[in-house]
Design goal:
- The chain is mostly helical.
- It folds into 3 domains: 102 residues, Orthogonal Bundle (DNA polymerase, domain 1); 163 residues, Orthogonal Bundle (hpI Integrase, Chain A), CATH 1.10.443; 34 residues.
- It is 58% helix and 5% strand.
- It has 15 helices and 5 strands.
- It has a 3-stranded antiparallel β-sheet with strand order 3-4-5, with no helix packed on it.
- The mean pLDDT is 84.
Amino acid sequence: MTIQAISVRNFETYIQDYIDVTINTFGYSPSGRRAVKYDLSLFSGFLREKGDLRITGDSLLEFLAWAKNDRCNVSGTINRKISSVKSYVHHLRFRQVPGAEELPIESLGRAREPYSGPVKVLMPAEVRRLIDGVDQCSVLGIRDHLLFRILYRLGLRLGEALAIDLDDIDFEGEVLQIHGKGRRERTLPLVTDIADLIKIWLLHRGRLMGAKREKALFLSKKGNRLAARTAQENFQKAVAKAGPLSLSKVTPHSLRHAFASHALEGKADLVVLKAVLGHARMKSTYIYLHPSMRLLREAVNDHLASEILEDLVTEEILVLRVHQKWKENPAA
């Protein structure tokens, strides 16, 4: 019996059609559309290189195994590829492409994501040393100091901070509009210290080329929106200047992790923290639930067990002393 299969040619033919549908109908973010197109093109390229021009369940499993073993994709990346192919095959079924109905994608599971353990974060003193070490004697130094400070103060991702426009800042209402991951927007309070630093930066920002033309808060020295790579390079200079830190690898995202961890240590509400961080799922916020040694010490010392055991220890010491005294003077 001949197994009905999708031809690679048909698979490739409808990719752009699928991307256009996702753009117009389902509202994928630009980064999401690029990721889907990349995954589908990678799959078809893998098949052509193998000389396999028919897509079956076996060829899909071989592709995922290749992605894991040869490309060293982690579970999250593999699951994204699975999701991309599944959604696309559903689109092919709507288009009644031969072989799409027979491809057993419903039986395809998800790669397990290993437990990575609690996130290790910088200590408050290290954050202060890192940020305060930025030289503010230049226009770009003032910019970087504000950028790094806002990452920690509001728990922003680097991309979110760099995406802030002048129109997103409401000094009168004391709020800041954040364009988050996956086009999720959130409004955060514009705390006084950050508002003051932004006002100082705006005075210096006007001296940069293109300041009147560009709407971005953070500008490069050429007057364009500051690029993530430039910000990361400048951050690494600050890390090097700060000296040895408790983490072997420190990135701008480390400031976001530090914000979340320090907030929970300060007994912040988990639901409120999820909203501040802009997490889509509570699962993403749970990774910061790792109490510091100070909190662990407080929990152990304040527990009822400490009082119960303290009484027992006192009684044992008393018995021991009586026993010792009796041994020293049995006739007493």
